Batch of 2 targets.
Target 1
Amino acid sequence: MQKYNTFKYLHVFMLITQFMQIIVNATFLINTLRTEPEILREMKLLTIKNVATEIENELGIDINDSNIEIIQTGSGKLDLSNDIKGRLSTTDINLLKTCHIHRKGCILVSDDLLLKNTASENDIKCYTTPEFAAYQLKKGVITKQQFVKFMNILKKIYIRKGDIDKILKKIENW
Amino acid sequence: MGTNINVTLPDLIAGYLKRKSKEEYLPISAIARKYIARGVTEELIVEYHRKGYSISSIAENTDVTIAKVMDVLSKLDEESDVEKTLDEIEINSSD
């Protein structure tokens, strides 16, 4: 019986990791669209309406014209102090609420460390753009050549350039 | 509408503003306004960041784009703990 349960949970875990939903925020989309937009075609990404509006206002790009799916904003219950709530935007909070509903099967991608830490405190996995690219490399979604090219272009505009150096060094052995 | 502020500037800065005014065919006040607004906005972005505001929230509060906020913050040379996440990615993918 115990063996069966172990198998059952392992099976569920494998299904979750196989069909992990990737929910992205504006920082990831802006960084990618400004550097290597082609790479977005390789990925199945989701976002919410607030983010789509931010991208449209900022870059004049209609998300509906891309392969990024807009999902309904969720209403997951978050554990947020008033202090944190006051430092996040409405878009950030809506993203966290949406991810919280799917938290066992979703990854949030954002280059904002407050959002990343708050996600982590609410049991939501969150990667920054270079971390997510490394994850996609490990999953075989993108090649090492694509990854290195993306990182080298991204480094020119990235918010934490040192992170990219560390990642490029780390993946040498991958 | 705005507040009128009279300032005395060092000759070096005043000379630069005069030169730009001639080059861009704009009054010195317009040129000075542009540079002050740019500098103060960047200071505000850094100030909000140091107080722990999110990027999207800083963009809202300073009325600038998210890309501009990231450009300004990229000059701060900050780093995060990427090694920890990469180790997790490596371990999970070898499961």
Note: Residues 9-17 of chain A have pLDDT under 50 and may be disordered.
Target 2
Amino acid sequence: MSTEENGTAISVKELEKHYGELKAVNNIDLSIKKGEVFAFLGPNGAGKTTTVEMIVNIRTPTKGSISVLGLDPQKDMKHISERIGILPQEFKSFERLTVRETLKYYSALFKKNVDIDELLKHIDIEDQAEKLYKNLSGGLKQRVGVAIALVNDPEIVFLDEPTTGLDPKARRGVWKVIAGLKDRNKTVFLTTHYMEEAEYLADRIAIIDAGSIIAMGRTEELIDRYGGVAKLTVKGCGKNGAEAIKKVLALKEFDQKNGDITFQLQPEQEVLDVLHKLKENGIGYKAIDIRRSNLEDVFLSLTGKSLKEEEQ
Amino acid sequence: MRPRIILMDFISQLKEWKRSPGTMFWTFAFPILMMLIFGAIFSDMDDVSYDLYVQDLDGTGSSEQFLSGISQIDAVNIINISADENLDDYIEEHNCKAVLVIPEGFQAQAMQSVTDPNATVNLTLKLDPSQQSSNGVIWSIILNSANQMNLQLAQGSNVVGIQEESLMSENFEYIDFFMPAVIGITVMNSAVYGTIFRNTRYKKVGILRKLLTTPIKRSEWMVSKMLFMTFLGFVSSAAIIGTGIAVFDINVHINAFLFLIIVSAAFAFSGMALVLTRYITDEEIADSAAGALTFPMLFLAGTFFPLEGMPSYLQAIAKFLPLYYVNEGLRDAMIYSNWEGAVFNSMIVFVLAVVVFTLGVILTRWKDD
């Protein structure tokens, strides 16, 4: 049975890309189901774009096999290209065409097209249709980029860092558009280094670091498996208090600064037990802050590095 | 190849071009301004006279007749040097910029040509390489006089020679020489800058990566770009020729060679730019690269002044520059009606276009590997 017949949109096996000695992508295996929103989460330079670009035949793999809708991109790109849509990383379109002209241009390249007016409405850029592309804001340009990726009514949409460089409001605007794709039963392959984006949009997430996938699964699964239950911050305990907490709770990983100490609660640990131990040992504090673990904690737990630090 | 896709891409380029004040300037305003400025500068120079030092070593009726023809031209002031003078010393003492030497036996050889078709005699013209603008004028005057004498002696055969090149006649002015070159450099600049800028920018902003994942073929995209470059070449040429006729009353011959050279030039220069673009990854250095390609050609390919007035080593270099053949071919076809020259130069530009453009297409990659 072909991968397409069994409901698989994209299948990647032992994929590698080498640049001299550097392994930009190292032994990646992926399988994405039709209708799934899949996020590739990782810091800049982790190998996200290289992987996507190999899947859509912009780059040639050094090793491994790829199947998109049951076809090999290196041999059947002519057929695959009619059925996929791509928003490349840092994409900008023709400066002096209007939004409508831009969509018509890309639409004319395909056999199958959607109605441009409907597409403008769906992406919520109807009022921008007659504006020149160069005069649009960054957020609107990205929405036009997503619209371009949809002109041929594709089965799979690849969105490579669609919100990088956008302000939070513009980012949410793009999220809304991407979330709408799932309702239209599109398979979405999204790359991002924003954990909130992956968490908000994706059905399943693969975390990539230094060219290799280090974890893959549903958000909750990843957090449960690698992120711990929650993070607890004891505020205003002072340096001595923090030292005592480390000793009493036998902490190995913690973050200590400004008289506060933050650590992860283990699955078997109850907050009340911790507070009880602090009281028992006479450790004073001003406040307690409990935060649910997220993908940032997963990344930290797996790599020992913060995703936000990596971004910077 | 699908004509629908090519037409759609062509129309999109046309829309972008129409909306870009910068490209409109370079296509229309720049060449017209250049024509007007240079035309005005060199039109004023019609009143300037040129000193021509002449040493007549023959001293016969024929040499005197040859010189009297030149002396009738108002712009030339003939200063005779005695045949006894040591020429090199005289030149040094008087700081001569242009010296014509009529050799001993000039008349005898000229007369012999009546019975012996192989008889020839060469005049020596010594020119100061630093005086390029006046050299061009003097060169054309001497050459025209020699041609007139050749017509009288042997129905145009080259009995009296300087160098076997230009066929310019005394009726041609600087603007006749310059206008075809304005077309040449405009086609060159549009093709080189357009191709380099477009390819580096499209690569940087992801348009080439995007197109690579659509059904458009590289050949369709390139044909559309080339058609657009050719269209720009014709639009610019029409504007330049129109200005030349309206302002300078130039007598322009429109013929197939003109079209062939413009199309070939657009392909040749775009091909050169494509080859260069293969090795340019940074949009910021694209401008410098385009300048490095076009700037030497602009000044060394006989654009502003006749090549004959340049030092011999620069003349040799010019023969390796495509713009030289474009300029010469356009002059031969549009102005001088020199069909032999038009065929020769247009064939060189055509062959160059086929070779370089094919190479450019082969080397152009959309993939990022």
Note: Chain B has two domains: 3-42+173-363, 48-161.
